[in-house]
Design a protein that fits this description.
The structure is a homodimer of 218-residue chains.
Chain A: E1 2-4, E2 7-9, H1 19-37, E3 42-43, H2 45-52, H3 56-64, E4 76-77, H4 78-89, E5 95-100, H5 104-115, E6 120-127, E7 136-137, E8 140-144, H6 148-154, E9 159-162, H7 166-178, E10 183-186, E11 199-202, H8 205-216
Parallel strand pairs in A: 5-6, 5-9, 6-8, 9-10, 10-11
Antiparallel strand pairs in A: 1-2, 3-4, 7-8
Helix pairs in contact in A: 1-4, 2-3
Chain lengths: 218, 218
């Protein structure tokens, strides 16, 4: 057991938490923040399930990865649960993110990130196109992709977003991981090879639409 | 058994294919297209695993949902497998998609979709902002969101992308589903309620980044 926010939870180093659970945590977190803002102090898995259109049993199973802090027949302490989830995700401090590729998608993601209140901030934008280098995207200036390793190392950046064309993605990823990046969100429609211990999430829009088509045909 | 592309496969109506498998199919499909373009006729699960940085056993398990068409010790016929996956996803004909919300993200998705060669095409873009209605995004003109039901019904659209602010998402989704949309890709950072039988995939960028932070902290 380790202590996070004063509450004993299972060590996340010893328990392998499935990626699907990790991906649901921001949804729980956002809803808990809304409940807290509405003055709700305690919530049951049944209520969470109703609100989130999810299975209460799955919610209980997901949250059990982080310890037995729900009280049977009563529910979860909203503030406590919110704190635990934020701590597990590492959201108790600002996390800098490098974005590579200042095309339509990269620019949109950058604007979007600047509009929302999130501890995860795009702090560096890179592009190889001389016409884009030096231009502004909201509060950021597009940097020369040649300086990528230098800037990523200097700012100790561990997260990056890939928004370059498919054929440019792998070299960019190699450079990012060599400079210390360990978590990647990849919008390029291509599979990536990464060193052991580096996590890649694919968020390729074209693939999302292709697989969505399966559900549209019936 | 039903026949797709001349090949006997398990009926997808009788077999519940996990969503995670459906989501991996576009990745297999893209790679098979690349292999075919390179003149490769047969591929083993081991080779697919090496190329895609995936587990060969998982690939075999995924593909077994669609029948036993791989030949032990030989591999998969690339063209046959490509045809089967495309048929299962319903990609043998064009599929029209409505996009609601012509902000930064919606505009980027629209440009992106027009740049790639895909049977899934954004054919209608809607926005409620009078300043945006009538403007062009590539080959499309932004339509008045008041005409949403009428246009979606007229074009018999079954897929839609939600790129509106969080508080506008649920009413838009209610209108889309009432007009016949059954598959939704949601970029708004909010949980959605949909009628039975309607599929929603969440692609909320802020949540993706928040959960990615988990992998960046270690």
């Amino acid at each position: 057991l380790i202590h996070i926010g004063g509450i004993a939870v299972l060590s996340i180093k010893n328990t392998r938490i499935p990626d699907a659970v990790i991906r649901r945590l921001p949804v729980y977190l956002r809803h808990l923040e809304q409940l807290l803002a509405s003055g709700v102090a305690v919530v049951s898995s049944q209520e969470l399930g109703d609100d989130l259109d999810a299975n209460p049993a799955q919610i209980r199973k997901d949250l059990a990865y982080f310890g037995e802090f729900g009280r049977k027949g009563v529910g979860y302490d909203v503030r406590q649960l919110k704190t635990i989830i934020a701590d597990i995700l590492g959201l108790n401090r600002q996390q800098a993110v490098a974005l590579v590729g200042a095309g339509h998608l990269g620019t949109a993601l950058c604007h979007h990130n600047q509009q929302v209140d999130s501890p995860i901030r795009i702090t560096h934008v890179f592009d190889a196109d001389p016409a884009k280098i030096g231009t502004r995207i909201g509060s950021l200036t597009v940097l020369d992709a040649r300086d990528l390793e230098f800037e990523v190392r200097r700012a100790q950046i561990r997260m990056a977003i890939i928004a370059v064309p498919a054929d440019a993605a792998q070299p960019v990823v190699d450079r990012l991981t060599s400079a210390g990046v360990v978590a990647l969100l990849n919008f390029a429609p291509v599979s990536l090879r990464v060193p052991e211990g580096v996590y890649v999430r694919h968020a390729d829009f074209t693939s999302e639409l292709l697989s969505l088509a399966y559900y549209a045909q019936r």
